[in-house]
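User: Show me an example of a complex going from sequences to structure tokens.

Assistant: Sure. Here are the input components:
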Amino acid sequence: MIGALLESRLSNVLDETVRYGNETSERVGRAVSSYIKGDEETARELIDTTAAVNEKSYRIEDECLKILGLHQPVAKDLRLASSIMRSAIELERINILLAYIARYAIDGRDRTPPHIEFMSQTVQDMINDALGALMNRDIQLLKRSTRNYIQLQDLYNQLQESNRDFSESGNLMLVARNLLSMGHHVMGMDDRIAYLIVGKRVIHHKVFYSVLMK
Amino acid sequence: MYRIEVEDLNVYFDEAHILKDINLKIPKNTVTALIGPSGCGKSTFIRTLNRMNDVISGFRHEGHVYLDGKDIYDPDMDVVELRKKVGMVFQKPNPFPKSIFENVAYGLRVHGYDDRDFIEERVEESLRAAALWDEVKDKLDKSALGLSGGQQQRLCIARTIAIEPEVILMDEPCSALDPISTTKIEDLIHKLKNDYTIIIVTHNMQQATRVSKYTAFFLHGEIVESGLTEQIFIEPRDKRTEDYITGRFG
Amino acid sequence: MWLPFDNPRKMDYNVLKRSSVPEFSYIRILDNENEAIIFVTGNNIVGAWHIDLNTLEETHSHKAMERLEINHDSVVEVYETDEDLFETLIELNDESKLSIPIDAEIIINEMFLDKSSREELLERYRIRVPTDEAIERLIEDYKSR
């Protein structure tokens, strides 16, 4: 039956995306940890495996294209395929950003205030909640994911403030910037997941636009 | 703004209540698709729009069907005039066993046109509008039955538009056609909507999404949901609509 | 704060007439320090959100209403929506719901306060505004008693 086939293909690619996302979240944690501890070995391993891990993004996107082309899904099936594609693309970006963080671990790290660890944890929470929302169509989990963005921005602002006094900033702010960017990518995922769940075109207000325009 | 307005329409055949509280507005010069499972009233509905149900025994209705503001069931409505304004194209192409030319000319003659030059001009215009002229211009006197299925259907469309209707009703116009003919008919519908208001019944949901701006979903004789096609197919409001279009029920 | 992706008709604050505030809308109030969004239906504010753009502190509901300010620097944007979308937005942003709706008059009055109206009012009631010196003298006079 066509209906069951589409359903199972969607279900499989969704599972694959959640697994990819979980792996990405865990790699974020390890990348930041490698930076904080100066753990070159872990850092190298993360860098070396980035390309292979990101192949999953292309496979997921490819499978979604096939689903769209062959099954012409509509309504929630179409929105699900769209959220999955968007999520895969954003997770790929996040993997690249964490590879850069691992690179900074090797190049020589700066001081490491606790903010970096908090930012890392926040990003991981955001990713995990987004994946949970995608998996279960859970709007409360989604809201939790987006609510965490403010915390991320706040931690970044604090670092930026305290960093003004240091003449050599090294790559601390680059690490922080990458973590903030990861937050942007998760917000992108969250917007598409909101569309899936709510069935109306809503997106989360982007406070950084207002902050940037001050 | 609206070519047709249907208000609180209920249709009965003897005791069977076929259409229930139908309210629908059809904007001018657009394509509206009617979708829904078999037997849910779509075909009955469009046949109500040009009073073709009148000939079926046991038919009665309540409510109103306004065409340009006038109720088509008013006692003083001229049904022949109505069927000139509201033309119909059927599922199975039904050309007359006459020449291609005569097929298109027939409607004009029936409506009292007898000027040869005028008829020739109209026949050519209609065949061009139906994207058939180039294929048949050198054999207008040949039998229409010698045309392919897709060509016959386009001939029927030419026949309908020759008498300059305002509305064209199409009841699954492509279901008997091959994919290439289907594409040609869909392209034709796309062109025709600039001049006519088109209502199309279709089982093929991809067709509905390709050709129509508005869609109404019929279920058990009621309209469950209607609106912009993109909204119905991407963000349906009613769960029954979503279940139907995603194939969760047939 | 969840909002529509394709913003519905945005009404230009400058030409906005009081009578044309839509039945369902959300209003964005922005200046350098603050951003706020209120949900307005008919004559009532039914939801509010505020963020301090310096501290990034967010408040919702009545607390947000307390922080709300419209001043001459504020950019005010009115976005019209329909009932269905409005209800969706309120549900999505349920933490911003007001437990008791507030009359939207206060905001609408602020928005439509014609800058020249003060002068008009004074003119109409023949009120002469005292100069700063006159006020100084008055205060000195009072203090000396």
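The lines above are the inputs; the final block is the predicted structure for all three components together. The mean pLDDT of chain C is 82.
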